[in-house]
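Recall that a protein's primary structure is simply its ordered list of amino acids. Everything else, from secondary elements to tertiary packing, is in principle encoded there. The following example makes that idea concrete.
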Amino acid sequence: MFQGYYDLTSNMITQNRNMNIISNNMTNVSTPGYKEDRLMQSTFRDEMIYRYEKEDSSARTPVGVVSRMNIADERVTDYTEGGIRETGAPMDVGLTGRGFFEIQTDNGNVYTRNGSFNLDDNGYLVLPGFGRVLGTNGPIQLTTDDIVIDKQGNITNEGGTQVFGTLRVVDFADYGQLTKVTGGVFRANAQPQAAQGVTVTQRYLEDSNVNMAEEMTRMMSGQRVLQSSAQLLKMYDQLMAKMVILGSAT
């Protein structure tokens, strides 16, 4: 009976973490370039179940293995591309293919597929709330917002007479080296390399890859698990209370 307390409590803790991740996915369903997370679950301990013979209590036959204590293993990010949609804004940039924009911040560079850029007070191209967008030769400074960005990320004025720079689009051999900071922004534990085969599209943004219908289904499933575990814990508590009363009466 006491093992049941541990099993149910650990399951509730795991489901709470799962619900937090699902809620975060749903919150970022409209964040450009956001990549959804999933909670991978595992068991804390496996135990062998035996069948004992009636005639000889010392004789036992293994029946199988039962898993105990469902726990959270790790959070995994799905880097599947989202679709790109037209916005019409000249500083919005979408990526098709593997790759990330590189953003310069006060705490080191970060990486994102969110191309919802703007200009700061000094005319530098920035990702609002994070920092300056890096080009192949450093931060990109513009003298106008009337710009053209080609498929290779080259930025010029409307007439093509002035070149402002080229967007630095990078990639990583192992996405397991990326750590999500917030939304669709990541830090890396490895040096990036130039992205290959990626296409830059001006006036478009990549949508989040979150499927709202799937997230709602997972949320309802998680809520049912939480409710069931809470009800069983209540039953365990009532049984323990009766045992205490019976024990004190004897």
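The helical segments are 2-27, 212-249. The mean pLDDT is 88.
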